[in-house]
């Protein structure tokens, strides 16, 4: 996110001495400065000041980050995946957001996973790309080297590549933590058309910097009731030769990961709640790009929120039939009544897969039924990819096998 933040203790000028407090007339030891930057020193970055040398590891071992195998969507057809069938209630207490993710869909640019978690995660770092995690239900505290977040239903949390963090579900809520994880092989940012040449969100954007929540920081080991000397393990997802080109390693650290006394720059995690997205509407049906909230390499993320709909006197509020010539369209239904899908069996927790090469649109009768509607009460997260998505083990496990025939119903 290209606007500047500074937190904690930093020196007046970068790449200069920054020392720990010491007695009168004495110089303390240097803090260790780390540049965390994108695109080889030519894009956004932040400087972090550590108590310990950030390169230090005491040991390493391999880690297999779940079943990342995929199969093509062959024969080509639309699908309905019922994510709420993936996790048994008895298993939630021991499942965490990191190691418990199950792969729903993926390709060489992005992976979509789902998890229902009740246990704290290990320390974790994604070395492959940025993550955008949508909180469907529940609450959690997310502790990162930049600071902490309290996230809840409707929050997106965008976490830059290589950010060490952990997820701690809040057990006092009635709903378990349900998270929809979008993992990029690239960086994730606001749409370029909403940004000035210097990175400010423009007036026509559906949200602005005021809506983005930076971390609460800095955050040190003693701030979370732990010791700076506590040893830790960090689970790292990285490029490798496993399924999807992904490998896993656990690094053993001889100190606590929360050792950053201060940082500044334009690269850091941030949260955004879907309720702060201001929908763009028109006299006739608006195309999906008006719902876009983020983008990565070869994919976009959109959200469909409660909104007033088309006000032309002859408008048909639900979408027209359209053929995804260049993309697969993945819709995750979170809340409300999705008008275009009535009669298809789609409900909360459903994911629809509309692949490129297949024309799709409202279910039979939905267009006529929508005429005269003034507002839609729906909440959904959509990912459109520009390369075909394959089915992960979780997607294969909860495919209803019937959705492709749902447009045939009611034919005379």
Automatic annotation (TrEMBL):
GO biological process terms, alphabetically, are: L-phenylalanine catabolic process; tyrosine metabolic process
- Name the catalytic site residues: 285 (proton acceptor)
Q: Which enzyme class, named as a word?
A: oxidoreductase
GO CC, alphabetical: cytoplasm
Question: What's an example of a GO molecular-function annotation for this chain?
Answer: metal ion binding
What's the EC number here?
Answer: 1.13.11.5
Query: Which intervals carry biased composition (Low complexity)?
Result: 354-366
Q: Where does homogentisate bind?
A: 338, 360
Q: Which UniProt keywords apply?
A: Iron, Metal-binding, Oxidoreductase
Instruction: Output compositional bias ranges, type Basic residues.
Output: 12-23
Q: Where would I find the Homogentisate 1,2-dioxygenase C-terminal domain in this sequence?
A: 299-396
Q: Where does Fe cation bind?
A: 322, 329, 360
Question: What cofactor is this protein dependent on?
Answer: Fe cation
| Leader peptide range in chain numbering | none
What Gene3D superfamilies does this protein map onto? Jelly Rolls
Top-level taxon of origin? Bacteria
Q: Which SUPFAM superfamilies did the record assign?
A: RmlC-like cupins
Residue ranges for the region (Disordered) are 1-25, 347-368
The answer on whether this UniProt entry bears the keyword Mitochondrion reads no
Q: State the similarity comment.
A: Belongs to the homogentisate dioxygenase family.
What protein name applies here?
Homogentisate 1,2-dioxygenase
Q: Which organism is it from?
A: Phycicoccus avicenniae
């Amino acid at each position: 996110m290209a606007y500047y933040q500074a937190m904690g203790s930093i020196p007046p000028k970068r790449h200069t001495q920054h020392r720990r407090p010491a007695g009168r007339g004495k110089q303390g030891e240097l803090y260790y400065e780390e540049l965390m930057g994108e695109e080889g020193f030519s894009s956004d970055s932040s400087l972090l000041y550590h108590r310990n040398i950030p390169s230090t590891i005491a040991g390493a071992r391999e880690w297999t980050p779940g079943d990342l195998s995929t199969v093509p969507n062959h024969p080509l057809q639309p699908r309905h995946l019922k994510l709420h069938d993936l996790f048994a209630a008895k298993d939630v207490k021991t499942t965490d957001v990191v190691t418990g993710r199950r792969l729903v869909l993926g390709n060489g640019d992005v992976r979509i996973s789902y998890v229902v978690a009740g246990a704290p995660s290990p320390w974790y770092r994604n070395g492959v790309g940025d993550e955008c995690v949508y909180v469907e239900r529940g609450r959690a505290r997310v502790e990162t080297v930049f600071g902490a977040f309290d996230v809840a239903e409707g929050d997106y949390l965008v976490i830059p590549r290589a950010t060490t963090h952990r997820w701690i579900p809040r057990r006092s809520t009635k709903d378990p933590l349900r998270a929809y994880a979008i993992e990029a092989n690239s960086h994730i940012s606001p749409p370029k058309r909403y940004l000035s040449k210097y990175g400010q969100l423009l007036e026509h954007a559906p949200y602005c910097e005021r809506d983005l929540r930076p971390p609460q920081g800095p955050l040190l080991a003693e701030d979370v009731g732990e010791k700076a000397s506590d040893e830790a393990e960090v689970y790292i997802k990285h490029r490798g030769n496993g399924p999807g080109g992904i490998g896993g390693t656990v690094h053993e650290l001889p100190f606590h990961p929360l050792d950053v006394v201060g940082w500044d720059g334009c690269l850091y995690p941030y949260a955004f709640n879907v309720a702060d997205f201001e929908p763009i509407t028109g006299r006739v049906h608006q195309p999906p790009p008006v719902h876009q909230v983020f983008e990565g390499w070869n994919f976009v993320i959109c959200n469909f929120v409660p909104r007033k709909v088309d006000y032309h006197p002859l408008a048909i509020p639900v979408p027209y039939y359209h053929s995804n010539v260049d993309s697969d369209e993945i819709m995750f239904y979170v809340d409300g009544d999705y008008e275009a899908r009535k009669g298809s069996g789609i409900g909360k927790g459903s994911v629809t897969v509309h692949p490129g090469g297949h024309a799709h649109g409202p279910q039979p009768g939905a267009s006529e039924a929508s005429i005269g509607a003034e507002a839609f009460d729906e909440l959904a997260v959509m990912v459109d990819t520009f390369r075909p998505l394959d089915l992960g083990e979780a997607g294969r496990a909860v495919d209803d096998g019937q959705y492709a025939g749902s447009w045939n119903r009611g034919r005379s």
